[in-house]
Amino acid sequence: MNVIAGHKKTFLATAFIIILCLIADPVNSLNAQGKRRGNKKAASQEAQLPADYRSKNFLIHTDLEPADAKDLLERLEKMLKIISTYWGSPNRKVIECYVVKDLSNWPRGSLHPSGAQSVANGGGVTMGRTSYRGNQIVSAKAIVYATADRGTPQHEAVHAYCTQNFGRTGPVWYSEGMAEMGHNWKALPKKGQPIAVDCPTYVLNYIKSSEPQSLNEIVNSKSISGDSWQNYCWRWALCHLLATNPNYSPRFRPLGLGLLMKKPVSFNQTYGSMAREISFEYLFFLEHFDQGYRCDLCQWDWKTKYRKTNNVRGLLTKIEASKGWQASRTLVEQGQKYQFSVEGEWKTNRDAKPTSAIGSEDGLGMLVGIVLSENDEGEYTLSDEFELGETGSFTAPVSGKLFLRCRDAWHELADNSGKVSVKIKQ
Ligand SMILES: [Zn+2]
Question: What's the CA gap between 424 and 286, in Å, rounded?
């Protein structure tokens, strides 16, 4: 018996992973096909035969021009540094990628059939093979096949890194959401510039013009990789919010590592107690979504204690120009009139003249308010926004928590500066 048990312990198991990814939107994948057909005629004159390029962590076989291939290697290395730092696990093995600019440049049989098929569809595929002894990875190898366009090599390289370093890439929403982050990420949250929304135009247009997919649909549906580019947009948006909003980012990294290491963790378990807040902030993010939007600056304050103001001393609070809605500490009652006065100045961009809370002629820089309340289902809802300015009174449109901010475009808060003191009394 002992011998058999001992034998079992050293038994090698091999797991195969194939992650098929569709990243390009329909318009562009049609363009890609057109481009391929168009290029066929010119191929004999300009054919760039596939060649090999190496960097510290990558080996790429590609028909890109040498300068473009070197540029891609640099971008891949930069991205790998960001993601391996984020996950706290240096890459262990060279990642091998076939990056295809024009399929007609590739001799028949030089690409794996599944790889060639994915590329022809305008996407990519990562094929992985991992050997385990017990739960321990003894060897792991992933090969990427990707079109040269649209960040596909970066996307697939995230899958390859996860496969080689963790043996898996996590559930679909996480795997694909993080792979999309890989090519959108420009820097680590804590180093240098915090992460602003910076995504391809088709993602921006789609998210801005569509009814959001619910959190439950993204996280709990039995979806598969490569299902639709639209689903990739929602997965990325959710991962972006969770990774960059300080209300949720501290739990997101350990959750992700747990999923990658197959620990007993889940989205629902990690964020269950915050479900209402996440749902509210997720919809808020999508409503104000734009290039440059900063989830860290626009995070909602769920911690500050609120109370009713008294009419002698009132409640004093500081509001910063560079942040989204901020807690006023004042609980307001529907129909009740409140007095307010504001001291201080702020600016709505680097070169703007400082203004008081009345703002400038274009309406920017004005102190505005909104009331957060809960409906019968316990969901958070917002009143309409109302203008305050420097001094005066307002009547609360509903009962709830008063939030304040300096009016400016939601995706242009980062270059604002200054803060004002607001006093509110009945
Ligand atoms: Zn993918």
Answer: 31
